Amino acid sequence: MDCYTANWNPLGDSAFYRKYELYSMDWDLKEELRDCLVAAAPYGGPIALLRNPWRKEKPASARPVLEIYSASGVPLASLLWKSGPVVSLGWSAEEELLCVQEDGVVLVYGLHGDFRRHFSMGNEVLQNRVLDARIFHTEFGSGVAILTGAHRFTLSANVGDLKLRRMPEVPGLQSAPSCWTTVCQDRVAHILLAVGPDLYLLDHAACSAVTPPGLAPGVSSFLQMAVSFTYRHLALFTDTGYIWMGTASLKEKLCEFNCNIRAPPKQMVWCSRPRSKERAVVVAWERRLMVVGDAPESIQFVLDEDSYLVPELDGVRVFSRSTHEFLHEVPVASEEIFKIASMAPGALLLEAQKEYEKESQKADEYLREIQELGQLPQAVQQCIEAAGHEHWPDMQKSLLRAASFGKCFLDRFPPDSFVRMCQDLRVLNAIRDYHIGIPLTYSQYKQLTIQVLLDRLVLRRLYPLAIQICEYLRLPEVQGVSRILAHWACYKVQQKDVSDEDVARAINQKLGDTPGVSYSDIAARAYGCGRTELAIKLLEYEPRSGEQVPLLLKMKRSKLALSKAIESGDTDLVFTVLLHLKNELNRGDFFMTLRNQPMALSLYRQFCKHQELETLKDLYNQDDNHQELGSFHIRASYAAEERIEGRVAALQTAADAFYKAKNEFAAKATEDQMRLLRLQRRLEDELGGQFLDLSLHDTVTTLILSGQNKRAEQLARDFRIPDKRLWWLKLTALADLEDWEELEKFSKSKKSPIGYLPFVEICMKQHNKYEAKKYASRVGPEQKVKALLLVGDVAQAADVAIEHRNEAEMSLVLSHCTGATDGATADKIQRARAQAQKK
Question: Domain Vps16 N-terminal spans what residues (predicted)?
């Protein structure tokens, strides 16, 4: 243990800091880091170097080179810089490289040097040029802050949703500030800058002078400032050699340290651990690294070569030409277990496990001591937690063996934390490998989440490792393996040296019917890469037509899209394609396409019936469909025409179409309608009133109601209305008029073709029993009983039923007998029934 703590350095009495090597860098840099623009992404992210920047004198023929490496120094990309002078580099939260040019244009590159997009920071920045820039991170995304040649600031808090904010002017600012940074307060990005001994805070509305509380006197300038990883704390380096540390709001001072060095540092970053009360700042000069905090002493390291600091959630990464190291505060669990002469339960359990492996009885003594204090669960938990914070697998195993040993003596210790730590460490050790180069700590891994880590492995095209991690952690397919395979497929379609057939087959063999994988998304990526035929082949594997069709339309394969839509049976999808085809093709080609697809043609006709009648007529004409064309003209005669002449002309066209269709019945009916329309117009002119658009029956009825009986009879003869129908019409009309005298005359004009029971029914409907009785006597024998019952003459109805000896009629009469009034009639019927049964 004593040897293990050899690289521990105390800062005051309550904290230790250690620096250990992550990787030995083999990136073979040809220039010093100080001669390059450097940007390193947090969370073990990649490193970007822009060699030969414009600030260094080089031959005019030499072009700058942008190189991207993993954190272990493995090359990821290298490209000649062919754009304008670059002022600053930085990584976004999505690990996209942002290159801020002098003209205010920001170029965005992927991890492998692929150009993604660009955007401008505005005309003012273009006119005044960029003096300095910062890339920062907020909860909304990654932002860019610009200092222009006019000493004004412009920023965007989220480059994914670019909204430029021009910050207020600083009064009296004639030169560039000595230092500045971005500060995030209340979810809003601000600019903090130093001008001589004064500090100014810029927000979207105003410029405010601020003063750090408790600042040592004599400060005439601020040389460097740094905001913590979480934007909660701020450090200021003054020209007097003092380092002031406090809250980012500048309302509270944490401590102040005199480093006795007045030279401005190259870098200053915070080094703190989540949930730790210790606060420390790491300051780097040319050959010295200093860790200062709330203690009278500092920790100092000698730098053998140019180094660069990368602030992290729980420490600081320090890399140079030859090494990549991690400096951080020793976690509490590790400190309690490994510090000299520690009697913490975790330290005793670790010793007990080691003695047990030596087969020494001291193991039992250590174990009994822990158990007597009742601290065995705490000891196991300490060892598990400390294992997570250790970088070297051997020490992880030692601590986990100790935890497993302690668990054996506990009855109900939940195994979840132990199992989860074993899984997490296995994942962390895999990604920390030199060839992978993502040196995440346990705290960073938990903050980043497994989903983001998988995304970053996918960005690095480490698909096999990502899939192995998903399978090992047993993640749901949609969140894990399926998603990664979909990314792999999208990368595969970009390999233009492989034929479309081979790529499509390879993707289908690998993906098959994997749930959560959308072939349409992969096909869209293929189309975006200019591989249309590959996209079509991939769409053949897409089972959802709703996903196939939109992409086929986008690729201008409309006819294929129509076939797919018809195969799906989704009418909405077919309509979508039809409307697209209509706008894309000329009228003739569109109609010819429809003729080859009967289902689509039928659906389009339905659409035209409601939306485009003229197009419907053209369709019928093109198909020589005279039957439907005739029906169309009939509908049009009523829907569109108001003048009688126009309607008759439309009907004549319809009749001609029906004749061409050899539908003589429809043609004759149409001609009859034309005659009726002309007659109705003539009636309106001669008699007044409303006749147009009435049916033939309604026209006859209206004439009768108007007293035009002769005209009604003439109309019936002209249109060959059968006598029975005419008598019904006249009977109903005269009853409605209550013209009983005319009705009686009409009934006696000749023998009724409909009989006289309807007269009884109509009269009773009009509540005229007197008139009804007149006709009841004239009703034929077969309907006599019914007629008598209608007028309420039950007794006579009974006599007729008995006379007819009809069982059904007698039953009908009995059903109408009520109470005492018809008792005699009922008895009479019953006696008649009995006599009939005897016979």
Answer: 4-420
Element (H, E) at 803: helix 794-804
Q: Calculate Rg over the CA atoms of the chain.
A: 48
| Average pLDDT of the segment spanning 125-143 | 91
For helices 416-432 and 393-407, give the axis angle rounded to 10 degrees. Answer: 170
Q: What letter does residue 518 receive in the DSSP assignment?
A: -
pTM: 0.72
Q: How far apart are CA 776 and CA 145, in angstroms?
A: 105
Beta bridge partners of 28: none
CATH numbers and ranges of domains, the chain: 1-18+212-330 (2.40.128), 31-196 (2.130.10.10), 340-583 (no CATH), 780-838 (no CATH)
Does 642 score more than 70 pLDDT?
A: no
SS3 label, residue 135? strand
Whose CA is closest to 536, among 563, 568, 573?
563
Distance between the two ends of the chain, CA-based, in angstroms?
129
Distance CA 338, CA 390 (A): 12
Calculate the alpha carbon distances from 184 to 162, 249, 573 in Å: 17, 9, 48
CA dihedral 706, 707, 708, 713 (to 10 degrees): 110
Please count the residues of the chain.
Answer: 839
> What does the alpha-carbon distance between residue 394 and residue 235 come to, in Å, rounded to a whole number?
37
The identity of residue 350, as a single letter, is L
The alpha helices in 314-375, defined as continuous H runs, are 332-338, 345-357, 362-372
List pLDDT tens digits, range 402-432.
999 999 998 888 899 999 999 999 999 999 9
Query: What contacts 70, CB < 8 A, 6 or more positions away?
Result: 46, 47, 76, 436, 437, 438, 460
